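Sequence only, no structure available. Ideas?
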Amino acid sequence: MTTRRETLRRSYRLPLSLGRRVPALTADVSRGGFSAELSQVFVPGSVIDGYFLVDNEEVSFKGHVVWAQAGNPMLSLSSRIGVRFDVTPDGLKRLFTQLDARPRRLKAR
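Reply:
I predicted one. Tokens follow.
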């Protein structure tokens, strides 16, 4: 079964902090949420908050984990999570405008 996304996701690396305790890095971001790579894994359904670092400014967000994939530290594999925003952070709107202006690259199949 596939999940249909409501918004366009763009590959974009943003540093973020989850609960001001767990550092992470986004793999992609959209107006609806993001996926991130981190050292720990969160249980799907977990309520989560934190902030992105955008142009040296903290942009707060709240959301919940919709999927999670445990990593393996022995193989240097990070855990991954998918987060859906409760409300799209206002501080990301300028970033989305910039990303929307970038040409899309088509993936080879």
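The first strand starts at residue 10 and ends at 11.
Hope that gets you unstuck.
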